[in-house]
């Protein structure tokens, strides 16, 4: 219980998105954190990604530079944030902390989290309207926005249903906006979400 590191057994991260690997403990006055390191084993041995000591933070694997960070001013929180997840980031990640006790003993603890990076298909999008109920006076301005989940990047296209059930492509992008509505803008609109 004392100075135990908490984590989760496995994290499933979405390709191209961000994920946090938890590594936390309850700080105590009797022990001072000396070093903190994160390493990864992807099947060909273990490599250190991140190392924090009295000289600062060091990112030792170039493929993680600019993509990983650990909270600085949050005692007891050594969680690793990985941004822009890539498929090869899957592996076993180990958080190791060394503390120095008041009587100068060193205590080391470590925990390991499995990371699986997955590609997630775009979900069925939802449309959010600027106004509730879209009965609007002519000349008003309004907008619709389209939102879907899944692995980024997600692209959106807006369509308007035509008279014979045909679909007319209006524009690409998550938002469809009107500055001054005309009666002819009345109709049924739908959006489509697409990712790789």
UniProtKB/TrEMBL annotation:
Transmembrane segments: none annotated. One of its GO terms (biological process) is negative regulation of interleukin-2 production. GO terms for molecular function: complement component C3b binding. Residues 1-112, 125-196 form the Ig-like domain. Pfam families: Ig_3, V-set. InterPro entries: Ig-like_dom, Ig-like_dom_sf, Ig-like_fold, Ig_sub, Ig_V-set, VSIG4. SUPFAM superfamilies: Immunoglobulin. This is VSIG4 protein. It comes from Melospiza melodia (Song sparrow). The lineage of its organism: Eukaryota, Metazoa, Chordata, Craniata, Vertebrata.
């Amino acid at each position: 219980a004392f100075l135990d590191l908490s984590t989760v057994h496995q994290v499933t991260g979405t390709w191209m998105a961000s994920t946090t690997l938890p590594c936390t403990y309850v700080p105590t006055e009797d022990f001072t954190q000396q070093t903190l390191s994160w390493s990864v084993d992807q099947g060909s041995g273990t490599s250190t990604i991140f190392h924090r000591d009295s000289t600062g933070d060091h990112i030792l694997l170039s493929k993680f530079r600019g993509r990983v960070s650990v909270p600085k001013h949050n005692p007891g929180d050594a969680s690793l944030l990985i941004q822009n997840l890539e498929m090869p980031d899957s592996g076993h990640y180990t958080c190791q902390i060394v503390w120095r006790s008041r009587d100068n003993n060193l205590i080391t603890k470590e925990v390991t989290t499995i990371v699986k990076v997955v590609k997630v298909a775009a979900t069925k999008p939802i449309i959010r309207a600027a106004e509730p109920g879209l009965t609007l006076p002519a000349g008003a301005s309004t907008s619709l926005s389209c939102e879907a989940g899944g692995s980024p990047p997600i692209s959106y296209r807006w369509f308007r249903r035509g008279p014979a059930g045909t679909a007319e492509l209006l524009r690409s992008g998550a938002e469809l906006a009107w500055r001054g509505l005309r009666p002819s803008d009345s109709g049924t609109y739908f959006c489509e979400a697409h990712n790789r």
